[in-house]
Amino acid sequence: QLQLVESGGGLVQPGGSLRLSCAASGLDYYNIGWFRQAPGKEREKVSCISSTSGRTDYADSVKGRFIISREKVKNTVYLQMNSLTPEDTAIYYCAADLGPCWSFGANLDYWGRGTQVTVSS
Question: What pLDDT score was predicted for residue 72?
Fold first, then answer.
């Protein structure tokens, strides 16, 4: 059983940065994705990183601004978020699955409880 714990959310001004973390023992064997859900909107995939190849993918809305990475020694995956806008306001969730990143959707094996990110002046 994988227990994912997100951290790093908070309130930030437009143009600012935050780094989210997703930690769990045994995380290294899984592909890890970050999702977000804004009020009144469906959950959307933001980014994903492969366990084996380290290959990453990003939603068009965050390309060039967000960077996903993993530190296997610490069993942690990060999401560095730069140039934040109010449209990035959402609860951010990390999820883990053995399936490939391109297949990541709603039905993944493990989910964290989420961390709130609010971008506002």
Answer: 86
Give the H or E element holding residue 90: strand 90-97
Question: At residue 101, what are phi and psi to the nearest 5 degrees?
Answer: -55, -35
Angle CA 65–22–36, to nearest 5: 55
pLDDT, tens digit, 9 for 90 and up, residues 13-34? 999 999 999 999 988 899 999 9
Rounded-to-integer distance, Cα 109 and Cα 107, Å: 7
Phi-psi group of 105: left, alpha or beta (phi > 0 → left; psi -120 to 50 → alpha; rest → beta): beta
Rounded Cα–Cα distance for residues 32 and 49 (Å):
5
- Tokens representing 72 are 């296997």
- Nearest alpha carbon to residue 89 among 21, 22, 41: 41
